[in-house]
Every structure is written in structure tokens, then in C-alpha cells.
Amino acid sequence: MTYFIDFINSEKHFYYVFSSYLIVFFLLILIFILTSTKVKKLEKKLNNKLHNESQD
Q1: Centroid of chain to Cα 9
Q2: H-helix segments, the chain
Q3: How far is residue 8's CA from residue 26's CA, in Å, rounded to a whole number?
Q4: What number of other Cβ atoms are within 10 A of residue 37's Cβ?
Q5: Three-state SS for 1?
Q6: How far apart are CA 52 and CA 48, in angstroms?
Q7: Average confidence (pLDDT) per 10 residues, the chain, 56 residues
């Protein structure tokens, strides 16, 4: 535990830790956006298909 606290308080590792967190959050946001757009496209296709089947 002491090692971890020293690591957090150390300023020489701050930029490394900050940049790694930034990259991870960027990737998570990118994955979220891409999946949400794909889900919306699939929902639209499903609604069109269901609407077409109900007309027949």
C-alpha cells in the first residue's frame, strides 16, 4: 500500500498515468459512440422490416 501511495504522490509518473487514463477514456468513449450508432442503424432496419411485414 505504501508503494502505491508513493507512486501516486510522485510527480515523475504523473504524466504517464494521466496519459494512460486519457487514452483509455478516449477509447471507451469511441467504443460507446460506435456501438450506439450501430444499434440505432439496426433498430431502424428492424422497424422498417416490421413495418413492411405489417403492411403485407
Answers
A1: 28
A2: 2-9, 14-55
A3: 22
A4: 10
A5: coil
A6: 6
A7: 80 84 97 98 95 82
Give me the numbers of helices (H) and strands (E) for the chain, helices first please: 2, 0
Instruction: Tell the residue number behind the cell numbers 422490416, with chain if given.
Output: 49
Contact criterion met (CB below 8 Å) for 13 and 7 = yes
CA 12 to CA 28: how far, in whole Å? 26
| Reported pTM | 0.68
Cell triple for 10: 510522485
